Amino acid sequence: MFQVIGPDNQGPCPHCGITVRLTAEDPAHPRGKLTDASARVHVVVVNGRCPSCNRPVVLAHEYCMELVGSALRQGALLRSRVVWPGKTPVSKASSDVPIPVRSDFEEAAEVLPISEKASAALSRRCLQSVLREAGGTKSRDLADQIDEVLPKLPGYLQAQLDAVRNIGNFAAHPQKSRVTGEIIDVEPGEAEWNLEVLDLLFDFYYVQPKMAAVKRAALDKKLAEVGKPPMK
Length: 232
Hints:
Layout: E1 10-12, E2 19-21, E3 23-24, E4 31-36, E5 41-49, E6 56-68, E7 71-84, H1 99-111, H2 116-133, H3 142-149, H4 155-168, H5 175-178, H6 190-225
Antiparallel strand pairs: 1-2, 3-5, 4-5, 5-6, 6-7
Helix pairs in contact: 1-2, 2-3, 2-6, 4-6
């Protein structure tokens, strides 16, 4: 979901989420180059446009500068990052997700580049709603709800959900568990992680069951056509 477009300018568009190879705005001069000789960092700026949604995207590829003889030359890639339109795409939840939950999730994703605190507050509240309504938890606090639902989840989801508390440092900020919608300080990567986990939970609780129900209905129809009873 929240991936960085690589040095080949290919990856998920931060606007629409479709995996594309960005096209240069000006094919003749697609890149601007900046070099910080003192820090020995060479930055290649790419002004691109998504061929899917046609929105602009600005990338920055940072390379280390290597001293070869008396000259500095571009060396290994340090990192690639999206400069515009911000940190993450505005993710759209599946239509199988209930509207109130989907609304909180999409608002949390949309506000993330502006305020990580607000995004995390919305995503915590959204997570609590999912665990209560889809996970069937009875506990009041988010941390307790996570404990209650973990044994019912597959292994790959258990680790991801449990990390919500660790990355968010619930031990130092217990109000994150008690008053999930409160806007308070966040840890690095916390807001993004909450959204990642919610996306996985949406698939587990809403998308996959809906797909299974559709397939079962189709199979029952075929069984009825040949005079056999539906699956139990």
